[in-house]
């Protein structure tokens, strides 16, 4: 029996959304949910990063506008995407994941970054939520315009597609 897959993503400037869309296409149009905050981050990048710094430093979980996913238990593989902020996972994503027991799920991370692919997202997901990702795909934001090949390779390397 095929594993049920779900894509969750948070995107600030559209780069991670492009990755989520391509991932969905390659996996076969699986259910995709965008994580959205009730109060959107500023369109001014520096202001948005300042808020994310405060959230991360103080472990503040922003309020979300998402509805609860009632059928979360039906999914075996969860793909979680986000931009790297504070060299880690944005607190909006932590806020969303915090509402579910994903400890028995296969978790895969995909993220976009601007300057450095060094990040602590896997460590922080484990420390904050007790979650361990099986694999992580990081793509520099400028390269998310055409993420087809790195996503295809990542999926094949992880035996997620034939």
Characterise the protein shown here.
There is one protein chain. The protein has 162 residues and is α/β, with parallel strands linked by helices. Helices cover 33% and strands 20% of the residues. It is built from five helices and five strands. The protein has helices at residues 15-27, 45-58, 91-97, 121-129, 148-157, and strands at residues 5-9, 31-34, 77-83, 106-113, 133-140. A five-stranded parallel β-sheet has the order 2-1-3-4-5, sandwiched between helices. Helix 3 links the parallel strand 3 (77-83) and strand 4. The protein is globular and about 40 Å long. The model has no long low-confidence stretch (mean pLDDT 91).
β-strand percent reads 15-25%
What's the number of extended β-strand segments?
Answer: 5
Report the sheet with the most strands, covering strand number, pairing sense and barrel closure.
Answer: 5 strands, parallel
| Element-level helix/strand string | EHEHEHEHEH
* Span between termini: 15 Å
Principal-axis shape equals: globular
Helix residue percentage: 25-40%
Average pLDDT reading: 91
Ranges where pLDDT stays below 50 over 5 or more residues in a row are: none
Order of adjacent strands in the largest pleated sheet: 2-1-3-4-5
Tell me the Rg in angstroms. 15 Å
Query: Structural class from helices and strands?
Result: alpha/beta
Number of helices: 5
In short:
It is built from five helices and five strands. It is an alpha/beta fold.
């Amino acid at each position: 029996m095929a594993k049920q897959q779900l894509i969750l993503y948070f995107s600030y400037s559209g780069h991670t959304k492009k990755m989520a869309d391509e991932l969905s296409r390659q996996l076969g149009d699986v259910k995709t949910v965008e994580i959205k905050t009730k109060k959107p981050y500023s369109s001014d990048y520096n202001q948005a990063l300042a808020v994310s710094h405060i959230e991360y430093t103080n472990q503040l979980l922003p309020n979300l506008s998402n509805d609860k996913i009632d059928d979360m238990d039906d999914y075996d593989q969860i793909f979680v995407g986000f931009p790297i902020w504070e060299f880690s996972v944005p607190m909006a994503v932590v806020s969303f994941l915090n509402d579910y027991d994903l400890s028995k799920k296969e978790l895969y991370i995909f993220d976009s970054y601007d300057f450095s692919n060094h990040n602590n997202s896997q460590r922080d997901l484990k420390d904050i939520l007790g979650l361990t990702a099986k694999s992580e795909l990081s793509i520099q934001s400028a390269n998310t315009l055409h993420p087809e090949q790195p996503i295809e390779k990542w999926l094949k390397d992880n035996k997620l597609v034939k």
